[in-house]
Structure formats: C-alpha cells, structure tokens
Amino acid sequence: MKTQILGFFTPWIIYALITLLHYFLPGKWVTGYVRHSTTGKLLSYKLNGRLVLLSTVILWLAAGHFELVAYDWLYEVRWFSLAGAVFFGLVFSLSIVLPYASTGKSLVSDIFLGRLENPQFKNGRIDAKMWLYLIGAVMLELNILSFIAHRYSEFGSVPAGLILSAAMLTYFIVDYLSFEKVHLYTYDFFAERVGFKLGWGCLAFYPYFYLIAIWATVNLPDPNTPLWLLVCYALLFLLGWSLARGANMQKYVFKTAPEKVFLGIKPKMISDGNKTLLVNGFWGLSRHINYLGEILMGTAIALSVGYPEVIWVWLYPIYYVALLLPRQIDDDKRCAEKYGELWQAYTQKVKYRVIPFLY
C-alpha cells in the first residue's frame, strides 16, 4: 500500500520540482506572437526549458546514485504514477476552466477546449501553455530513463532498437525545448485555449502515452533487428524531423524577418496589401508539411523497437494522424476566414494539404 501511495503522488512531486526549477532558474525573456486579450500587447515568455530538463535529469540520476530512489522507480510504479497524473490533470483542467467566464459554448465544450486563451501567472513568469509543455516533456524523459533502466536491471542489456527508440524520443524532447521560441508561433498558441485537451493532455497523456512503444516491448526478447534496418528507421526519423523543424523554423523566420533568406531559400509570398502568405520552401510543398514530419517521426519510433506485429506500438503514430488531420481541417477553415480571397489564391499555388502529390 505504501508503494502504491508513493507511486500515485510521484508525478505530483516531480511536477512541483519542475515548476520550482522553471520559476527560479534563469531564463531568456522572449516576446511572442499572440497578444493579451485585454491590453492587446504581445505576450512575453520566460523560456528555460532545456536548463530545466538538464537540471531535473541530473537530480533524478543523483537520487538514483545515492539510493534515494531506484533508477527504475517510475517503471515499478508506472500504473500508480499514471493514475496520479490522470487525477492531477483532471484537477488542473477543472481549476483552469470553472472559475472563469463561459465562452458561450456548452459546459462540456468549455471544459474540454478551455475558456482562457493564454493564461499567465506570477507576473508572467509562468505561462500556462509553456509550463504544460515543459511538464510533459520532462516527465516523459524521466519515464524513458526509468523504463530503459528497468530493462537493463532485469536483462543485463538493452536491445539496440529500444535504445534507438529512446534516443529518438529524447531527441524530440531536447529539440522541442531548444526551440521554445519557435513554438510561440504555432497553432497551439494563437488558436487554442487551456482546458482538458491541453491541460490533461500535457500532464497525463503526453508523458505516458508517447513512450507506448517502449512500454509495450520493454520486457520482450531482443528482436535482433538488422543494423541496416535500424539505420533506415533513423533516416526516416531524421526526414520527419527535417520537415517538421524546417517548416516551423522557416515560418518563424518569415514572421520575425519576412525578407530574410532561410537555408538558402529566398521567401516568395503573395499579398493582398495587408496580409502576406509564404508560398515556397517547406511551405510550398504542402500547407501543413510540418504535420507530415510529426507523423513520420512517430512512425520511425514505433518501428524501431522491432515489433511491428504488436499493435500497441502503432498507437503513437495513429494518434498523430487522429490529432493533426482534424487540426489541419480546422486550421484551413480558420485561415479561410482570416485571409479571405488571399487564402483562395494561396490554395491554388499550394494545392496539397499535408502530403505532397497525395493529400
């Protein structure tokens, strides 16, 4: 019973630690893309995700070294930890929605999608969206380390495919936290509110579901995947990353310095005199080429563990498809309303929605 209780509250303790580190560690203040709903001023964000990640991992490894907690503790209490995160996510979601004015939609819609657009606390030192993504990313990394530690302690070795899958996820996390300012210009920040979808998603879903390929195969025999096949999976991941990161970076550069050349790509745009849209480079391939990149990365992570016949490993890339394709439809509708005839001209130049020459 003691282990169960400790396991349940483990994510609470870790989330509190991450919050304190985020608040007190130095960070870079960056002006974002979205504006305050009341004052109209551009919001500023304190960004220190990479430092928080490094500090948390060091503290976790130090705790294991000094036997304060087992290296594989999060694996041993995984179900209780997940339950604690689920409950914490529910409490947060209700507390960030119910005290605030309705959007005019149903209560269920408000709870799921949220009422506040970009809430910030402690004089802006904690932005709810950045905090949620930081919590999810750091907790995911600790789970990865713990699951790999369990595999090593039980079997004395870790399959190369499992290491590759863990490395891809870690790269995904480090990359995201290294380019936090770029993500201030993404759909989440200018189009979504903070409710169950984002709150519970980052606190309970993100840090546990994203490693489902490792979770489902960590105790299975070594599949002995050929080296050449692992190299192919790594290349598929890098292709996906190149599309996702390249597209987001090109958009960021275009938003902040419209005439600047990015990776040798001179920006081409169409304009109605007031608004402009980018129509070349990554954004000339499809309207949401970054979504294709995310799906390819998820597919590579699922394949790398070496058990394509295990259906659970495919839930991760399937989740991306289920999340991003409806988002693409919503984003297209939003852009059509915002840009009007300019958007129609844009879709004539960039005909494909996500997958070039196919969709």
From TrEMBL:
Gene3D superfamilies (alphabetical): 1.20.120.1630
Lipid bilayer topology: Multi-pass membrane protein
Alphabetical keyword list: Membrane, Transmembrane, Transmembrane helix
Compartments, as annotated in UniProt: Membrane
Segments crossing the lipid bilayer: 12-30, 51-71, 77-101, 130-149, 155-174, 194-215, 227-244, 295-315
InterPro entries, per database record: ERG24_DHCR-like
Principal location: membrane
Family: Belongs to the ERG4/ERG24 family.
Protein name: DUF1295 domain-containing protein
Lineage: Bacteria, Pseudomonadati, Bacteroidota, Flavobacteriia, Flavobacteriales
